[in-house]
From TrEMBL:
This is Chaperonin 10-like protein. Eukaryotic CPN10 homolog which is essential for mitochondrial protein biogenesis, together with CPN60. Binds to CPN60 in the presence of Mg-ATP and suppresses the ATPase activity of the latter. It comes from the Eukaryota. GO terms for molecular function: ATP binding; metal ion binding; protein folding chaperone; protein-folding chaperone binding; unfolded protein binding. Belongs to the GroES chaperonin family. GO terms for cellular component: mitochondrial matrix. The keyword Chaperone applies. The keyword Chaperone applies. Keywords: Chaperone. SMART domains: Cpn10 (SM00883).
Length: 115
């Protein structure tokens, strides 16, 4: 029996009630992409097609870290609440309701934003 992707997506989305129930494993980092402003500084609203996705994201949860070849844990380079730069493409998308999140491996993050 073949299941359609729509059925699988609906099944996964309905299984996750809250993003707080997701605990990343190993060196994975859960982030939410920062949304670009849909309004200019002068108050003009931009059409949805003109608003680009930003590569900036907020770290929501962090796994305990990867394990090296000697069995020692490697601490993640970021903590929840940090702002990071992420690749334009990649990561594992997670959708909870209307909100979208992504899981990246620690080494896939491009930079940490220090403010």
């Amino acid at each position: 029996m073949v299941r359609s992707e729509a059925f699988l997506d609906h099944g996964i989305a309905s299984a996750i009630k809250s993003i707080r129930s997701i605990a990343p494993l190993l060196d994975r980092i859960l982030v939410q992409r920062v949304k670009a402003e849909a309004k200019t500084s002068t108050g003009i609203f931009l059409p949805e097609t003109a608003v680009k996705e930003l590569n900036e994201a907020k770290v929501l949860a962090v796994g305990p870290g990867a394990i090296d070849k000697d069995g020692k844990r490697i601490a993640p380079s970021v903590q929840p609440g940090d702002k990071v730069l992420i690749p334009q493409y990649g990561g594992s998308p997670i959708k909870v309701g209307e909100d979208e999140y992504s899981l990246f491996r620690d080494h896939e993050l491009l930079a940490k934003i220090n403010e």
